[in-house]
Design goal:
The complex is a heterodimer of chains A (526) and B (178). Chain A is an all-alpha fold and 526 residues long. Chain A is built from 30 helices and no strands. Classes of the chains: A mainly alpha (526), B mainly alpha (178).
């Protein structure tokens, strides 16, 4: 018989890894295979509910709650608090207050629950007086304690309502409520929002936080990091790592931040070894920074790239809509989001040079499935004879991409990393590096990858447009390439669709024929 | 711009107010102006030049496997599973290790522990005579049902063949008569 504690570990691990199907299968298996009556296990379901809330799986969390309610049981206070926090993250302050009222009707909620309720109430009011009136209402009755006072302060600061925050602070002074780290962290985040190095407000906020003599949390560390001089950022993170508990989720977040900081300094191999170490430690590199803190600091997308990602996501949404069930669509969307937040990808994006990005990709390639690794080893030897160091690094990095199977997670990450590296090469205007990555991506290269080369190597635009149009496996890819080409009036390939003069057409036909010989599969396109 | 300035000033005021309300330590500045003048408070948090230099050349020395790494967890779990204790005690120890892995943000390690423990528990269950006895009637029933189904199918096939043959014979006779 499997113990409840062990089953709880299994369930929480699946939720932490965001493996929805495995989590559901495990619950089913526990009920059917191990003949465990889940409805009579309030501790187990409460823990699962809290974990689901943390992962923002509200539907699953509510299912746990319903299962318990149906059998006359109730979820624990921790689970309710997690549900309130999840509702608040989604901007549903009414829902959070409902949970608090429900919790209150069943017993006396603890300080943290009052703090969460205060945050929810603060979302409804624009002034401290209004908030005070609301929290004193009979049906709500939020207690005034250090946690709720600091929650009110941080909620007002987060909303940018500094006047109300000052009023809260004044009341705290009058009622002798101590300032806590949670309140001051919000102030630090707001003060450091400008991201100016050595901004006086952020320096003051940090020193205020220090006076509490509490260890600096990962949130505070990451909030203040952009305000530190670039040369001292790594050491600042190291300080944070020394202060935080090695057995905590904050530790993993700070280690990941240190790795990405190394990437921004162009130390690709050190970054890669740190990421590989984190992976070997059992950390989940896709969900370490589930709320996107690291992506915002180290690898923010430019407006152009963000637009492209949005376009890509739009395509994904379109594909998802074609799927049979909403559940499948949700799984695909969450997988896509997880891939976007993968630390390897962020590291490649954060790299300032082609060389460092190549080093990260090479390290990732070594961790890829054996077939890809063998290809990497074979081509790394040939890359050693390349003329420039950057080209060698690029070739070594991209060597392992030989038609990666999309089903394998590592291969998927690797392919995405190569595409990300292509962006780095494009920014560096290194056409040879782009071509090397493209070659290694082979048939798995999306049409956008071909366009990258077109953008970098202007002289070969027409030829590569055609190759790009032909390389796509399905009609969707070809349509996407065409759609993008139409936006480029100078491009010859579009001339066929736009009905140009017969002389131009003849010339283009001849060119297409020449390309078709080199790249079979163009017949349908022409 | 003006709005931004006003906001910046409000933040300054808020920070001044915070500085006034913070607990006063002996060696620390007492108000916001002192705090601003004395940068020692911030300097204690900021890395020193030596530290920055140390980190600038930091290598891979600190990247050593911890007791919660995948390899270590696998080894520990194997040892625990091989230990001669009761299954309940074994599972309890494994669950504690899994909990520690989850708290330390190592979900892959926790998942590995669970997989190993579950496999062992399932194997033990299969070898358990009570479970085998409980399973025997179900298996027997399934086998009987399968046999019955196969017999029914065979009968149906034979019947269909017989019918087809009879028809053919009748047709042949009819043709012979005509």
């Amino acid at each position: 018989m499997l113990s409840r504690e062990l089953l709880r570990v299994g369930l929480l691990a699946q939720v932490a890894l965001r493996q929805r199907r495995s989590y559901e299968a495990l619950l089913r298996h526990a009920q059917q295979g191990w003949e465990l009556e889940l409805a009579e296990e309030p501790r187990l379901l409460s823990a699962a509910m809290a974990a689901c809330c943390e992962a923002d799986w509200l539907q699953h969390a509510l299912a746990c709650n319903e299962t318990l309610s149906a059998s006359g049981q109730t979820a624990g206070v921790e689970a309710h608090k997690a549900l309130m926090a999840a509702r608040l993250r989604q901007g549903d302050s009414d829902g959070a207050i409902d949970v608090f009222v429900n919790l209150r009707s069943r017993g006396s909620p603890d300080h943290d629950a009052h703090a969460l309720a205060m945050r929810a109430a603060a979302a409804r009011k624009t002034s401290w007086k209004g908030l005070q009136n609301l929290m004193r209402r009979k049906w709500l009755k939020i207690a005034w304690n250090p946690s709720s006072a600091n929650a009110a302060l941080s909620a007002m600061v987060e909303r940018g309502n500094l006047r109300a925050a000052a009023d809260v602070l004044a009341t705290m002074g009058e009622t002798k409520m101590p300032l806590e780290a949670s309140g001051l962290e919000a102030v630090l985040c707001a003060a450091a929002a400008s991201r100016r190095t050595g901004a006086p407000e952020s320096v003051l906020a940090l020193s205020a936080l220090q006076r509490l003599r509490a260890p600096l949390s990962a949130t505070a560390c990451l909030a203040y990091l952009p305000c530190v001089q670039p040369a001292g950022r790594l050491a600042f993170l190291q300080r944070g790592l020394r202060e935080c508990d090695a057995v905590s989720s904050e530790w993993a977040l700070l280690q990941a931040a240190a790795a990405l900081q190394l990437a921004t300094l162009g130390r690709g191999d050190e970054c890669a070894s740190r990421l590989a170490w984190l992976e070997d430690e059992g950390a989940d590199l896709q969900h370490v920074s589930a709320r996107g803190e690291l992506a915002r600091i180290f690898a923010p997308l430019s407006s152009e790239e963000a637009g492209e990602v949005a376009g890509g996501l739009g395509d994904e949404v379109g594909e998802a809509e074609e799927m049979e069930t909403a559940e499948e669509a949700a799984v695909v969307a969450s997988e896509r989001a997880a891939l976007e937040a993968d630390l390897w990808l962020l590291a490649v994006r954060a790299c300032p040079s082609v060389r460092s990005a190549g080093e990260v990709c090479a390290a990732l390639g070594e961790r890829a499935p054996p077939a890809a690794a063998a290809a990497a080893a074979a081509t790394a030897a040939t890359a050693a004879t390349a003329s420039t160091a950057a080209a060698a690094a690029t070739a070594a990095a991209t060597a392992a991409a030989a038609t990666t199977a999309d089903t394998d997670a590592t291969a998927r990450v690797y392919r995405a990393a190569l595409l990300e590296m292509m962006e780095t090469c494009r920014r560096a205007r290194d056409a040879d590096a782009v071509a090397a990555v493209l070659r290694r991506l082979g048939s798995s290269a999306p049409p956008e990858a071909h366009l990258r080369l077109v953008q970098v190597r202007r002289r070969c635009r027409r030829r590569w447009c055609v190759v790009g149009a032909g390389a796509g496996a399905g009609g969707t890819h070809r349509r996407r390439v065409r759609g993008q080409l139409r936006l480029r009036p100078g491009c010859g390939c579009c001339a066929l669709g736009l009905g140009l003069g017969s002389g131009v057409r003849l010339r283009l036909w001849l060119k297409l024929w020449a390309v078709a010989v080199a790249a079979p599969g163009l017949g349908s396109e022409t | 711009m003006e709005l931004a300035m006003r906001e910046a000033m409000s933040m300054q005021q808020l920070l001044d107010q915070i500085a006034e309300q913070l607990p006063v330590a002996d060696e620390e500045p007492t108000d916001a102006s002192d705090l601003r003048r004395d940068s020692a408070a911030v300097a204690s948090q900021m890395p020193s030049a030596a530290e920055a230099a140390e980190w600038a050349t930091a290598g891979k020395s600190e990247l050593e496997a911890t007791p919660l790494s995948l390899a270590s967890i696998r080894a520990q779990a194997k040892t625990m599973l091989a230990a001669k204790t009761t299954p309940a005690a074994r599972q309890e120890t494994l669950a504690a290790l899994g909990d520690a892995a989850l708290r330390a943000a190592r979900p892959h390690s926790a998942a590995l522990i669970f997989d190993m423990a579950e496999r062992r528990a399932w194997k033990a269950r299969m070898l358990d005579p009570a479970f085998a006895f409980a399973l025997a009637p179900t298996l027997a029933l399934t086998l009987a049902l399968a046999l019955a189904l196969a017999l029914a199918l065979a009968l149906a096939l034979a019947l269909a063949l017989a019918l087809a043959l009879t028809r053919r014979v009748r047709r042949a006779r009819w043709a012979a008569r005509c």
